[in-house]
């Protein structure tokens, strides 16, 4: 990931400006909505495309106390960058870097017996206990241990390993399937199942530091799900988990990423001129075209062809024809903004620009995907990195 020091006026082909001040304010807004629970900043997938290390630092500065990643490699990279405090990672495969994680004091999530066996073997080799969190599948049907005999075996064997000093069971946790769909019956079903699985583990003698199930939508809208810790990802970055739940502003959140590019060409063309591969757009009359030098290699979805919105010179324009690997075109309707003018693909929206949610709707996806897929060829430019006042 190329990182650029804050030089907001640097003439870059394209840039993703990351407003760390907004991220800190989002953390504070989330803390205010989740009193009594600790906050885990989920910074997997390079902080949803925003840059894991700077976002993790900003989140901790604003009151988050845990960091969360999917893969152990992501967690190890945070530790290597000097980030302190507890870090949980939850997506393991056999042969993973268990020993390095244990030596780095990283909490490892276990969803089954194979993982417990690997963690125990690595703890023996490391000569120190593994911090393990047992993950329950309360109904998501993805990762996690099934209730019933599977859970009984995992809990029992983890307690045996704890008695031997090989593990410390630091957490019991789960993940929702439909927390972003208000009133979905699976929410209470999962919550009931979670309470039963917690009760069983605690009766057997597990004494976790944290019990947790809430992601961003649950943290924002379901207080009964907060337990000891909420794991927020998308909300940190100022994006609503779902437009049905509300806008970012409804939750006191502000989008952190602004994606923009410099127009690489502005030119006059006659009517009837095909535009971009396949000629799926043909100019309806004499007009001007602007060349926006980002494409699907930069993470602009090809599904945005003919649909994605862009603010150029105060007006919304639409991707004309196909998004190519490195560039796309907008029809400027005869306007002649200077070459090099800023084209804003998305941002917080308060300068009139589209938002990541607008792009998600144009592409038939979710805003999570829009920001996360922005590629490494786009430099991240960090602004408001220092706490002011
Ligand atoms: C990604 C993820 C989260 C964060 O989800 P958001 O909806 O972005 O808040 C929380 N927990 C787990 C297990 C995840 O994979």
Automatic annotation (TrEMBL):
- Keyword RNA-binding assigned: no
User: Which cofactors are required for activity?
Assistant: pyridoxal 5'-phosphate
Which SMART domains does this UniProt record tie to the protein?
A: Ala_racemase_C
Q: What is its EC number?
A: 5.1.1.1
GO MF annotation terms:
alanine racemase activity; pyridoxal phosphate binding
| Annotated keywords | Isomerase, Pyridoxal phosphate
* Segments forming domain Alanine racemase C-terminal: 256-383
Q: GO terms for biological process? A: D-alanine biosynthetic process; peptidoglycan biosynthetic process
Which positions does the record annotate as the modified residue N6-(pyridoxal phosphate)lysine? 44
Q: Which reaction does it catalyse?
A: L-alanine = D-alanine
Instruction: Report the superkingdom from the record.
Output: Bacteria
Active site at which residues?
Answer: 44 (proton acceptor), 277 (proton acceptor)
UniProt KW Transferase keyword: no
- Please state the pathway this protein functions in, per its UniProt record: Amino-acid biosynthesis; D-alanine biosynthesis; D-alanine from L-alanine: step 1/1
GO-annotated cellular components: cytosol
The entry marks the following residues as binding substrate, namely 142, 325
Q: Which PANTHER family does this one have?
A: ALANINE RACEMASE, ALANINE RACEMASE, CATABOLIC-RELATED
Sequence similarity? Belongs to the alanine racemase family.
Purpose: Catalyzes the interconversion of L-alanine and D-alanine. May also act on other amino acids.
The record's annotation in HAMAP family points to:
Ala_racemase
Protein name stated in the entry: Alanine racemase
Which gene is the coding source of this polypeptide chain? Answer: alr
């Amino acid at each position: 990931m190329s990182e650029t020091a804050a030089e907001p006026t640097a003439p870059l082909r394209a840039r993703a400006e990351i407003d760390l001040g907004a991220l800190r304010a989002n953390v504070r807004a989330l803390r205010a909505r989740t009193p009594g629970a600790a906050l885990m900043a989920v910074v997997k997938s390079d902080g949803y495309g925003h840059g894991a290390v700077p976002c993790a630092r900003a989140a901790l500065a604003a009151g988050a106390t845990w960091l969360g990643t999917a893969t152990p490699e992501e967690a190890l990279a945070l530790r290597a960058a000097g980030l302190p405090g507890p870090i949980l990672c939850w997506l393991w495969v056999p042969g993973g870097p268990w020993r390095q994680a244990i030596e780095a004091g990283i909490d490892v999530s276990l969803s089954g017996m194979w993982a417990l066996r690997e963690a125990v073997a690595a703890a023996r080799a490391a000569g120190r206990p593994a911090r393990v969190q047992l993950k329950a599948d309360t109904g998501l049907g993805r990762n996690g241990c099934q209730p019933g005999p599977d859970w009984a075996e995992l809990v029992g064997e983890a307690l045996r390993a704890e008695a031997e000093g090989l593990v410390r069971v630091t957490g019991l946790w789960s993940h929702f399937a439909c927390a972003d769909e208000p009133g979905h019956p699976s929410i209470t079903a999962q919550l009931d199942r979670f309470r039963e699985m917690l009760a069983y583990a605690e009766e057997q003698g597990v004494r976790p530091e944290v019990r947790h199930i809430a992601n961003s939508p649950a943290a924002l809208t379901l207080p009964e799900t907060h337990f000891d810790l909420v794991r927020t990802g998308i909300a940190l970055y100022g994006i609503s988990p779902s437009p049905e739940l509300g806008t970012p502003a409804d939750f006191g959140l502000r989008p952190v990423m602004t994606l923009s590019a410099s127009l690489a060409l502005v030119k006059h063309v006659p009517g009837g001129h095909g535009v971009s591969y396949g000629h799926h757009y043909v100019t309806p009359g004499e007009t001007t075209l602007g060349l926006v030098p980002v494409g699907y290699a930069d993470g602009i979805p090809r599904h945005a062809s003919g649909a994605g919105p862009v603010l150029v010179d105060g007006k919304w324009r639409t991707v004309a024809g196909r998004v190519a690997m490195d560039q796309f075109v907008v029809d400027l309707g005869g306007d002649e903004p200077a070459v090099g003018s800023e084209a804003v693909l998305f941002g917080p929206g308060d300068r009139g620009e589209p938002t990541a949610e607008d792009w998600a709707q144009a592409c038939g996806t979710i805003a999570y995907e829009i920001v996360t897929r922005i590629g490494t060829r786009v430099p991240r430019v960090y602004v408001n990195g220092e706490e002011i006042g």
